[in-house]
Amino acid sequence: MRRRGGLGLAAAGLGVLLAAYPALDRRVPGAPLAALAIPALVLYVAALLRLWPGGLPLAVALLALEYLAAVYLRGGGLDLLAPAYAAGLFICAELGWLTLEAAGGRPPWAGRGLALAALAGAGFLAAVALLAAAMLPFPAGWPLTVAGVLAAIAASAALGWLARASRGGERQF
Prior knowledge:
mainly alpha
């Protein structure tokens, strides 16, 4: 029970930080962000308390949408903290699942925690590399457009493959 409480507090705290970060930008009006952040946090806490565990993915999606709305409302551009936000969002989602699993009697094991930390770190480093590449002054044109389209197709195919592969192992709470 103590581990579940610690995981839940860490998850909720990280969720609050993720919800607050986009609102720190003074160039962005707060009302649209609050309209996404407040329901996200309510759903996230409801999921952690097992009132509606199925709301966890929706809560994480709303947090991501809030961040995207903040970027859009400020006029776009690169956010140098985007890799850290993405890693935090991943950790937030996984802490939520770990909390639910601990509440269901399946305590998390240390190897899984290390794997999650390694994956978040690798994702952060990959995102930093992509952000650095986006800041390089490459000439535009059709070759880069083709490369972008191929990358989008590859990412969509990978997500489709992952979704199909996970159908048999859906989480049940």
